[in-house]
Amino acid sequence: MRERQGLEEGIAAVKGLTQALEDNIGLIELGEEEGDESVVAEAEAAIRSMRGEAKARQIETLLSGEADANDSYLEIHAGAGGTESQDWASMLLRMYTRWAERRHFKVEVLEVHDGEEAGIKSATLLIKGHNAYGWLKTESGVHRLVRISPYDSNARRHTSFASVWVYPVIDDTIEIDVSESDVRIDTYRSSGSGGQHVNTTDSAVRITHLATGIAVACQAERSQHKNKAKAWEMLRSRLYEEELKKREAVANATEASKSDIGWGHQIRSYVLQPYQLVKDLRTGVESTSPSSVLDGDLDDFMEASLSQRIEGGAGEVVVDID
Hints:
With about 325 residues, this protein is of the alpha+beta class. It has 3 domains: about 1-60; about 70-170 and about 250-310, Alpha-Beta Plaits; about 180-250, Double Stranded RNA Binding Domain. Helix content is about 40%, strand content about 25%. The protein has 7 helices and 11 strands. Strands 2-3-1-5-4-9-10-11 form an 8-stranded mixed beta sheet. The two termini are about 35 Å apart.
């Protein structure tokens, strides 16, 4: 049913673009016949505005991986730097939440560890929507922020790092066999804002896969049983993502393992001072509006990364609908 829904949406989108293009071409011909330049200009502007949607739809046709259509987990971890990096991690949390909302995806916060003074140490999101993993998978890596620190009384410029790791929610069509003897299960009290929100039972669950060292945690539910079930789902998804990375590493002869959260490993830089620029270091795509990017406007970066990753090209996919 999910595959059928995705196909129906894709077909409807193509039909809608085709009809809109034909309608506007007709308006241009009518405007030229009647000498009405305003009608011609309006129709031409409408056709130009269709480029973005056509480009996004073309990218979506390239999302053919076996898990690309699935929901996605997204983890954020603050790097070294204390409050600065923890605040940066919370900014990334908001950025991806806003991006998901723009696409009408559903976002669930599974786990959050707050910082001592501000921001977060780590967070795990579950993002539900068609092709959620396909779109987000190129966001894994280290993100670097340069700004005047709001926590520095001398108003000095600081550089902060945070990592983002993305892995798919696996469904019944993908089998991952993990036994309880392969893992260590720990329970602890969920963190919160204090007061009446303090959890008095050990409902939070952390599962560590002994062979790989992969650890997942969930504290979203009040029930330890529900948190444990969700943590098992997350662990299987993480192990599946590790297998995908191994396959990709063999195919591309590149190193796919996680790197340090620091200099030399970042995939994107967000510079707020002394100038305004967001630059993807893999594709060269830039934006001079960091505020828009931090508010979830990530499609240009994702599209370029997907086109480079899937097609092996240098970046942007060009769609000509003239």
